[in-house]
Amino acid sequence: MKKSILSLGLALVLALACVNAQAAESSDAAGMGNPVDQFTGAVWEKTTESNKAAFLFGVESAITVEYFVNAKVAEKAAKAGKRPVYTLSPFEKGWMKAFKDVKRAEIIKMVDEWYAANPKSLDRPVLSVIWYELIAPRLAAAK
């Protein structure tokens, strides 16, 4: 288990390092410290398909690690006769539900299409677009 978590963590670090390097190159604001805010549509448009896929793989890997850690914590609590505590964020739960059977290439295409249809919003962070424009509407439609 430890090896798989370390492998997933390494994959996440590598994927985010690749994207952060591109974000740093194209960021005009020297003081922007939050990598999520730096990875905007302007950066996304300049990012290669393989780096977009690596970014999404990193997000998916982080969510997967959180899911399995959460499951182990809940299992341990249940065995101890305590009420399990679920710590997955709405983003993590939403991603898992909205993109359950969606391939990374499809997510890339959806993000590409959103920015193409909204060229004045290229300063908007990619994860904001993924949450508000892709995940939230899919969750609302599923209700």
UniProtKB/TrEMBL annotation:
The lineage of its organism: Bacteria, Pseudomonadati, Thermodesulfobacteriota, Desulfovibrionia, Desulfovibrionales. Residues 1-23 form the signal peptide. The keyword Signal applies. It comes from Desulfovibrio porci. Keywords: Signal. This is Lipoprotein. The keyword Signal applies.
